[in-house]
Amino acid sequence: MAPLSTGALVVFALVAAALALFVTEWLPPDMTAVAVLVALVVLEPYTGVPARTAIDGFASPAVVTIVAMYILSAGVESAGVVDWLAGRLAALDLLPIYIAALGGLVATVATGTLSASQAYDAVSWNVVFLLAGLLPLGQAMQATGGAAFVGALLVDAAGVLPPLALLALVYLLTAVLASVITPPATVVLMIPIAVATAAEIGVSGFPFLVVVTFAVATAFLTPIGYQTNLMVYGPGGYRFTDFARVGGPLQLLPCAVTTLSVSVVWPL
């Protein structure tokens, strides 16, 4: 196994530090995410990750959609017609969901359903900064070789684990990563790793691909891993660790069900 590069070590250290701060709640979660973002910019000489990557999270469709949905939710309380139309466009799949949401946002303000200040106040900005600040970690892991290192560890684990246990390990690793660096970043990071790992041990890659997609869709350990939880996290007044208390045990159930079901439908 090739040694970790300096950049990968720095990125893994940032992931570990973010996770520790989330658990201890020494800083508010959104401030932790902003600190990670700033650290990526400052540490560019060591990671080789462009500073632009650190702020790309704010342009992510996931972030744009969440901002728009906060505003549309506020608009529903005032009228509902404009927001109903945006919802129908999204449901009909005529437009990408974030474009439909943005269209509804603009229409909500343009028609006077909400004023610009009301639209601004409707957004839980701590949630936006939390999500946008962590998205670049996935890109940084890829750029620094951290993703390749994780893949090598999985291949090594295959030497002592049967394929079914390795499938469960991929699920758990994906769910944990999605709970820290967000599901969109985790999908991009883990699908190549999972498929390559399957190829290395001589089994079908499709079950591993399916497990990754299920794991990012059922990451309940933190509000970061599940966008519905993320949207209610701020307005509901929840603590970050509240989700881990319920989501930790819950995470084991879909892991067992998904792993066994996938192995039956798509044999390894």
TrEMBL record:
Keywords recorded for this protein, A-Z: Membrane, Repeat, Transmembrane, Transmembrane helix, Transport
The organism's place on the tree of life at top rank: Archaea
Signal peptide feature range: none
An example Gene Ontology biological process: transmembrane transport
Organism: Haloarcula taiwanensis
Entry's transmembrane regions: 30-46, 58-76, 96-116, 128-154, 166-194, 206-226, 246-266
Location in the cell: Membrane
GO cellular component labels: plasma membrane
Domain (Citrate transporter-like): residue spans on this chain: 20-91, 96-262
Name assigned to this protein: Citrate transporter-like domain-containing protein
Membrane topology note: Multi-pass membrane protein
